[in-house]
């Protein structure tokens, strides 16, 4: 089945999914934001075939989400480092994880949960706020094309 490109869509969600919409890309970004940098580290973490991992890393670099940099240890290797554009996906991953924790696990089932590195406490819930600070839900938002 051929994949249809959404890069010309006026919907911001559709256009975003065109770049990061497959699970491997999101898991690579998760791992990169968690400190993994080298091809072998991603391969070991994800158990992903080399050709698929290579294609996803290449696409993430092409879209400016990751960048190639000389290895921090001075070796001949390159590392994949999140750019500012890539780092801005952090709240997306946290929100997706919170949704998954709420809806895809049994109440007492063990799960990985991010915690504040400073004090080890759980993160607050992700919220959508209006400019004036009001919390918004789906019924409070409409789409506007500009």
Q: Overview of this structure, please?
A:
The protein is mainly α. The longest helix has 14 residues, at 90-103. It has helices at 12-20, 23-33, 39-46, 50-62, 84-87, 90-103, and strands spanning 66-70, 78-82. A two-stranded antiparallel sheet has the order 1-2. The mean pLDDT is 93. It has a domain at 12-83: Winged helix-like DNA-binding domain superfamily/Winged helix DNA-binding domain (Arc Repressor Mutant, subunit A), CATH 1.10.10. A hairpin with a 7-residue loop joins strand 1 and strand 2 (78-82).
Task: Spell out the key features of this protein.
Arc Repressor Mutant, subunit A, mainly alpha, 6 helices, globular
Quick rundown:
The chain is mainly α and 146 residues long.
Strand order of the largest sheet: 1-2
Main sheet overview: 2 strands, antiparallel
Strand content: 5-15%
In the predicted model, the low-confidence regions spanning at least 5 consecutive residues are: none
Architecture (CATH level 2) name of the domain at 12-83: Orthogonal Bundle
User: What is the CATH class name of the domain at 12-83?
Assistant: Mainly Alpha
Query: CATH topology of the domain at 12-83, anyone?
Result: Arc Repressor Mutant, subunit A
Shape: globular
Question: Termini distance?
Answer: 33 Å
CATH homolog superfamily of the domain at 12-83? Winged helix-like DNA-binding domain superfamily/Winged helix DNA-binding domain
């Amino acid at each position: 089945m051929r994949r249809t490109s959404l890069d010309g869509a006026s919907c911001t969600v559709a256009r975003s999914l065109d770049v990061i919409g497959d699970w491997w890309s999101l898991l690579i970004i998760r791992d990169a934001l968690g400190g993994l940098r080298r091809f072998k580290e991603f391969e070991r973490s994800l158990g992903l075939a080399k050709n698929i991992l290579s294609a996803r890393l290449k696409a993430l670099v092409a879209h400016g989400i990751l960048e190639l940099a000389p290895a921090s240890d001075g070796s001949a290797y390159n590392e994949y480092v999140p750019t500012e554009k890539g780092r801005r996906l952090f709240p997306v991953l946290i929100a997706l994880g919170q949704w998954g924790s709420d809806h895809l696990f049994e109440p007492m089932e063990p799960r990985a949960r991010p915690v504040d590195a400073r004090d080890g406490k759980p993160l607050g819930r992700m919220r959508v706020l209006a400019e004036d600070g009001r919390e918004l839900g789906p019924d409070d938002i409409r789409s506007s094309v500009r």
